[in-house]
Design brief:
Bound molecules: pyridoxal-5'-phosphate
Number of strands: 13
Strand content: 5-15%
Largest sheet: 7 strands, mixed
Distance between the termini: 19 Å
Length: about 375
């Protein structure tokens, strides 16, 4: 096969393209009717009281921390196995990231290790729904309630996934979705805050829009805000994607099914284990090589896949080992051994709706010959 098989690819149709054109012709490019329409689709889907569109998942996380009152001197407990925006959002408000190691099978934060990390400065826990699945939220909620902590769910990878029948995004005090083109739905760039908390919602709405209060004037700013608004152009894309969500997810599940059938029954690698009660809307297709593979061997496989025009990546590098975390925040290798061991062995294979069953068979065949 000579054609390149990309790691990800957005599922865009004429519906999205026509919706963009219509907004462009309307002249109402920002703060128009598409914003509340897109937000309403999230309150309906996730089953929460408030949804607030932002221009990225990262900005959504940032304003939630501000609305929760997290700041200098506060500590937030989170996982070292995630995308950098998770823990960076804690640093944006000058709070401290306190990492807790992950479970070796689910690759999610291990609730059994959370209580030992709690200090009098701990103010919040940020569980991440890694790869669209989630950690044991009932255990996390119990710990948060016992110690009076806020819970921010980073659900950027988990739109539509459920845990014990509850939508991901609704499991914490607030949640943040992201709409970069590799997520379940995309708006180009974009994000969405979801919460049942009236006060968090009120402050997030204001912070997104330069600190304005509703019904106050354009030049009246009640608090230090940002411009984190999502344009109507992007909301129009999101609305069409949400209308097609069931179709998009059904296709993603079909591709995931082909992978699982092809990958099954080989001891040289494993895939992510799901907790009982998790119904997954797949985000990526990540395999973890078994312990006898070194990081060097994994990196060689990644390079060989790329040389054969198969998109792939090492989701994720441990957050605590990112250069500026080591340099400026004093983290070091060996602190979170399970995360480090998983991170050294993961390979994300191409995963999107334009893959055919033959593409998947080709990818798995090449992958297996490289093992
Ligand atoms: C994608 C993602 C984000 C941030 O999303 P952006 O929209 O790219 O800012 C945050 N956390 C996780 C876990 C993500 O996967």
């Amino acid at each position: 096969m000579d054609r390149e098989i990309t790691l990800s690819s957005p599922d865009i149709t004429d519906h999205e393209i026509n919706a963009v054109t219509a907004v462009m012709r309307s002249g109402h490019l920002s703060l128009g009717p598409k914003v509340p329409e897109f937000e309403r689709m999230f309150t309906d889907k996730v089953g929460v009281k408030h949804a607030i569109a932002c221009n990225s998942g990262t900005s959504a996380l940032h304003v939630i921390w501000r609305a929760m009152g997290i700041g200098p001197g506060d500590e937030v407990i989170t996982t070292p196995f995630s995308f950098i925006a998770s823990s960076n959002s804690i640093l944006f408000v000058d709070a401290k990231c306190v990492f807790v190691d992950i479970d070796p099978k689910t690759w999610q934060i291990d609730p059994k290790k959370i209580e030992a990390a709690i200090t009098p400065r701990t103010k919040a826990i940020m569980p991440v729904d890694v790869f669209g699945s989630c950690p044991d939220f009932d255990a996390i909620r119990a710990i948060a309630d016992k110690h009076n902590l806020c819970v921010l769910e980073d659900c950027c990878e988990a739109l539509g996934s459920t845990y014990k029948g509850r939508q991901m995004g609704s499991l914490g005090d607030a949640g943040a979705f992201g709409f970069y083109p590799n997520k379940q739905i995309t708006t180009g760039e974009g994000g969405m805050i979801v919460t049942n908390d009236d006060q968090i919602a009120f402050v997030c709405r204001s912070l997104r829009n330069q600190g304005r209060d509703p019904d106050a004037g354009w030049l009246a700013h009640a608090r230090l805000g940002f411009n984190y608004r999502l344009p109507d152009i992007n909301c129009a894309v999101g609305i069409e994607q949400m209308k097609r969500l069931d179709e998009i997810i059904a296709k993603r599940k079909r591709v995931a099914g082909w992978y699982h059938a092809q990958l099954e029954g080989d001891k040289r690698y494993s895939t992510q284990a799901l907790l009982p009660g998790v119904e997954l809307h797949p985000f990526v297709m990540v395999v973890k090589l078994s312990d006898e593979y070194t990081r060097e061997k994994r990196d060689a496989i990644l390079n060989n896949l790329k040389a054969r025009k198969i998109g792939c990546n090492n989701y994720f590098t441990p957050l605590h080992l990112q250069p500026f975390y080591v340099r400026d925040h004093g983290y070091r290798e060996g602190q979170f051994p399970i995360c480090e061991s998983v991170s050294a062995r993961t390979i994300a294979l191409p995963f999107h709706n334009h893959l055919t069953e033959a593409d998947v068979a080709h990818v798995v065949k090449v992958f297996k010959t490289l093992l």
